[in-house]
Structure prediction request, 95 residues.
Amino acid sequence: MLVIVSDLLTDLDTLYQGLDRLRFGGHEVLIMQILDHDEMDLPFDGPTVFKDLEGDEELFAEPEASGSPTGPRWTNSSRACGRRAEPGATTTPDS
Prediction:
């Protein structure tokens, strides 16, 4: 069994390709999405620069313009990940 703990804030097509390869190789995969409340609510005022802690990338964004990540686009993305799960798997949102 392979356990992946990630924020899953990545390109979903690339993620699915990797997961498909692991499952094809006979691995059982458990994915746990971990998000900080600030990543979900974006409580930032005005334009903000986000710095990648794992690399050198920086992203300039205006959270008010991009909408709430808990809105439809974010929810649809999370549901898409859940639909790719193995039959019988469950997905549980953070409460």
Notes: The CA atoms of residues 51 and 58 lie 5 Å apart. The longest strand covers residues 2-6. Residues 42-66 form one domain.
